[in-house]
Amino acid sequence: MASATGSSSTAAAPLTRRAIAASRRRASRRRLVGVTAVAAVAIVAGTGFAFVNRAPSAEAVAAAHAQSVQQNEEAIADSLAEAQAKTTIDIASQVVTSTKDKVDASALETSVASLADYENLDSDTLAARVAETATTAQTVQAAASEADRQAAAAAAAAQAAAEAQAAAEAQAAAEAAAAAAAAAQAAANTPAAAKAAAQQLASSKYGWGSDQYGCLVNLWQKESGWNYQAYNPSGATGIPQALPGSKMATAGSDWATNATTQVTWGLDYIKRAYGTPCSAWGHSQSVNWY
């Protein structure tokens, strides 16, 4: 029994060591598998993280898009604001130039100057200055338009006054000329002037001397008293007592008011009817008419 037991104990010991060695080998393999699994998990996890970086989540994409849209909108708004500022500067500068010497544009010039650094102004400041400049430009332009209107009205009034003055002066000159002409005509219609005109025409046109002129003076003194307004009940008219008086129209349309026209016609009539004033005077003395 003891031998069997001892033999059994001696036999069990090697089995136990083998078992222990096998157990150790299995444990070692399990650790390797574990390490390998952990490494694999780490690699997979690493790969997973890399994938997340390459393909963000929907929330991240939406946030990035919103930020991009906002940035684009802000960039567009800034560009529009700067373009508006530049346009406002250009228009306001034109207003300053066009209203020079018409109205005070110093306030507008100050507003334009405030926009000189528009690229560096924040949006609120820029918007306020643009609005102020635009309003000031409108005010200056309206003032210039009113100044133009007033200037045009003043010019029209001055023109009307000048034309009225010119018309008055022309009328006064015409009236003065008419008065002078009337005075001259009145002077020419006196018996003395009519005789002087007759003497001059008798000599220059017909070659009659003082003897013929003497007969003429006597003839027309008897007929009309050398009065250009003389009128006979029979219709004989004027200095030469033309019958009717309208015959003298052949010498001029002013026959009724101009002694010289009447004298001109009378001398021509004497020449045609009697040849000379003395012949006409002799006939008048003989029959009391000529």
Q: What does it look like?
A:
The protein contains eight helices and no strands. With 290 residues, the protein is mainly α. Among the domains are: 61-148, no CATH class; 191-287, no CATH class. The longest helix has 66 residues, at 123-188. Mean pLDDT is 83; it is low at 1-53.
Q: What is this structure's SSE topology?
A:
Elements: H1 2-54, H2 58-98, H3 106-113, H4 123-188, H5 191-204, H6 210-223, H7 259-273, H8 277-287
Helix pairs in contact: 2-3, 2-4, 3-4, 5-6, 5-7, 6-8
Give the C-alpha Rg.
67 Å
Unreliable segments of 5+ consecutive residues = 1-53
Percent in helix: over 70%
Largest sheet, strands/sense/barrel: none
Distance between the termini: 220 Å
Give the rounded overall mean pLDDT.
Answer: 83
Which geometry do the CA atoms define?
A: rod-shaped
Number of helices: 8
Q: Summarize the helix and strand pattern as letters.
A: HHHHHHHH
Number of strands: 0
Q: Which structural category do the helix and sheet elements fall into? A: mainly alpha
Tell me what portion of residues adopts beta-strand conformation: under 5%
Brief summary:
With 290 residues, the protein is mainly α. The chain has eight helices and no strands.
